[in-house]
Every structure is written in C-alpha cells, then in structure tokens.
From TrEMBL:
<keyword id="KW-0804">Transcription</keyword>
<dbReference type="GO" id="GO:0003677">
    <property type="term" value="F:DNA binding"/>
</dbReference>
<dbReference type="InterPro" id="IPR039420">
    <property type="entry name" value="WalR-like"/>
</dbReference>
<feature type="modified residue" description="4-aspartylphosphate">
    <location>
        <position position="55"/>
    </location>
</feature>
<dbReference type="Pfam" id="PF00072">
    <property type="entry name" value="Response_reg"/>
</dbReference>
<keyword id="KW-0805">Transcription regulation</keyword>
<dbReference type="GO" id="GO:0006355">
    <property type="term" value="P:regulation of DNA-templated transcription"/>
</dbReference>
<protein>
    <submittedName>
        <fullName>DNA-binding response regulator</fullName>
    </submittedName>
</protein>
<dbReference type="InterPro" id="IPR011006">
    <property type="entry name" value="CheY-like_superfamily"/>
</dbReference>
<keyword id="KW-0238">DNA-binding</keyword>
<dbReference type="InterPro" id="IPR001789">
    <property type="entry name" value="Sig_transdc_resp-reg_receiver"/>
</dbReference>
<dbReference type="InterPro" id="IPR058245">
    <property type="entry name" value="NreC/VraR/RcsB-like_REC"/>
</dbReference>
<keyword id="KW-0597">Phosphoprotein</keyword>
<feature type="domain" description="Response regulatory">
    <location>
        <begin position="4"/>
        <end position="120"/>
    </location>
</feature>
<dbReference type="InterPro" id="IPR016032">
    <property type="entry name" value="Sig_transdc_resp-reg_C-effctor"/>
</dbReference>
<feature type="domain" description="HTH luxR-type">
    <location>
        <begin position="148"/>
        <end position="213"/>
    </location>
</feature>
<dbReference type="InterPro" id="IPR000792">
    <property type="entry name" value="Tscrpt_reg_LuxR_C"/>
</dbReference>
Amino acid sequence: MMIHTLIVDNDMLFRAGIRMMIDSSSDITVAGEATTGLEALDMIQATNVDIVLMDISIPQLNGVEATKKIVDIPNCPKILILTSYGMDEELFNALAAGATGFLLKDSPPEGLLTAISSAYNGNAVISPQLTNKLVEEYTSKENKVSPINQALSKLTDREREVLELIGLGRNNAEIAHELFIAEVTVKTHVGRVLRKINARDRVHAVVLAYHAGIVKPDGGPDSDSVFYGSKQSA
C-alpha cells in the first residue's frame, strides 16, 4: 500500500531534500508540498494525505496551530513535526495538540522513511535525542506528574512490566512476545495501565515512565535510532 505524504516547509531546498529521500522509497510518495499552515489545510482537504511532515515554524498558522486544525478534520492524517532546534515550547505544544511525534531535521534518510511508515501504522515517533528534553519540558510544565509514584503503587507486577516495555517503545505484539502472553491480554493490561497512571495515551505513558525512573533516558537497546511506540490508547 502506498503512503501519501505532504511536505510542509517554507524552505524550498529542504522540501527538495525530503522529496529526494521519499522518492528513494517504493512504498512512500509525495502527494504535495505546502509552504504555510493554511496551504497545508487546503491540500489535506483536497488531496489524499496519510502523513504530514511539517516544520514547527511555518508562516500563516505555525506548526502548533496547524496541528490543532488538522486533527479536527475527519479521518485526519498523522502529523510528524520536523525541527532544527531540539525541544522547545512550540514543539511540546504541538505534541500536546495531537502530533504523532517529532524528528530532528538532520535525521538520516532511513530514519525518516522508517518514521513515516511507523507513524502510518499508528505508532508514535520520537527522536531519542529529544527524549530527555521532552521529559524535562513535561515535568516543568505539569506539577501533576509528582503523583506518578503513588499511581505506580496501584499497578500489579505484570502491569508494571507492561509499562516498562511501553517506555522502551514496544508495541502490543512485541510486549506479548516478550512476556509470553496473548496480544489481547496485553491490550487489556495497557488499557488498565493508562487509566491507573492517568496517561492520555502511550506517548504520555512514556514520559511518565521516564520521569518515574522506570525507563532511563538513552538507556534503551538502540538509543541512536528513532523511538517508536504505539500511540493507540490500548
């Protein structure tokens, strides 16, 4: 199945570079390009788009405001925010607004293509270089994360194992394989974990897992690659 992408950036050379990377793939194509948030909204409603690759600082609706409007569109595409600056206020807000994830603009071609495919399949995408900043930004903004340790005490041993694997970016099938349980059982555990720790989704759960020390930043098995974790609520 072909994945249709929309590149949103007001830098013509950068758009050309992204297009070249995508053109090297046999199952991903560029459906269009836009230079502003408003153009992106128009194209999404007029064109078949699965993934939006969007710069955070585009004019006429920046990445945050554009994300808020895109997620309100029925059957909206997934949104990957691209940034040159690392984690900042706007990037955090875009994630909170409903972006599927974010990548640094200097990510290698294979990392970008894998991120697009992963986002298309319903996964969250987070550059590991930005994970520490995400945790710092989140904890500085929400004092509510402090009760996470109290919430953890409500988890069963199995639910804690599931949370740890979520924090490492495992999807349901991978968790089932590692714990030798059925995938439907994993889905049940994930739902209970999210409710007990009051996480909006699995990206939120990842942040809480890092903050609580269940998962150590950059301590995963492949810390130089892009982190992928299912964003589905269960």
